[in-house]
Write a structure and sequence with these properties.
The protein is mainly β. Helices cover about 0% and strands about 45% of the residues. It is built from 1 helix and 17 strands. The strands form 4 sheets. Strands 9-8-10-17-12-15 form a 6-stranded mixed sheet. A 4-stranded antiparallel sheet has the order 6-1-4-7, with no helix packed on it. It is globular and about 45 Å long.
Length: about 200
């Protein structure tokens, strides 16, 4: 079975989750809920309130089979992520990972996956050295549901051996690193003063 990461980003509307281990939690902005499905678990989510909820649910496959189901929660503030990278998920066994339900630092995962989050201010540029063989970048859609062209933040990414690529809210792109330690550069090029909320997956 796989692991499920719920990353919450709305400012007001929040999801409520419940699972077969008896865990019930209301998530707010900045919260991470990591559920390791292991040998089996049932899990449900619903809106906490009358309005639709908007959050990210991310799945990964573990390197080990038949793990015991586990549940972890973490919280990272906007201030922590403002114009700098915060490691929010990392492989279990890494020095800064605590395999307990609530703790500071990144949430543990049984996968070769390290996940970073940031809030890039308008006009700012950030760099991230990638240590895996590949990666993925996602610009979170924080401006709300919109089936048309995105009206939110816009970024330009410069990756190893590739032409610059422009991404808008809701967009994502795979990254082929080529060589360990290559640098990904992210520039907020929004027309207006808009902050870009970004996730970068560093993958082996």
């Amino acid at each position: 079975m796989s692991s499920c990461l719920t990353y919450t980003h709305p400012s007001i509307i929040v999801p409520c989750s419940q699972d077969s281990m008896g865990n019930i939690e209301i998530l707010k902005r900045g919260d991470i809920q990591m559920t390791s499905a292991g040998t089996g678990i049932s899990h449900s989510e619903k809106c906490h309130g009358s309005q639709p909820v908007h959050f990210l649910q991310i799945w990964s496959f573990p390197k080990i089979s038949h793990l015991e189901p586990k549940y972890f929660t973490r919280h990272f503030t906007d201030e922590e992520k403002r114009d700098q990278w915060v490691k929010i998920v990392a492989p279990i066994g890494d020095a800064d990972v605590k395999p307990v339900r609530e703790a500071p630092g990144p949430a543990p995962v049984h996968s070769d996956l390290t996940l970073y989050a940031t809030l890039v201010s308008d006009g700012k540029t950030l760099e991230r050295s990638l240590q895996g063989k590949k990666g993925y970048i996602h610009v979170i859609q924080t401006s709300g549901y919109n089936p048309q062209r995105s009206q939110g933040a816009r970024v330009r990414i410069h990756g190893p051996g590739a032409d610059p690529l422009e991404l808008r809210e809701g967009d994502g792109a795979y990254i082929f690193v080529g060589q360990k330690g290559n640098t990904l550069k992210i520039e907020n090029t929004s027309d207006e003063a808009k902050t870009a909320e970004i996730l970068v997956f560093d993958l082996d």
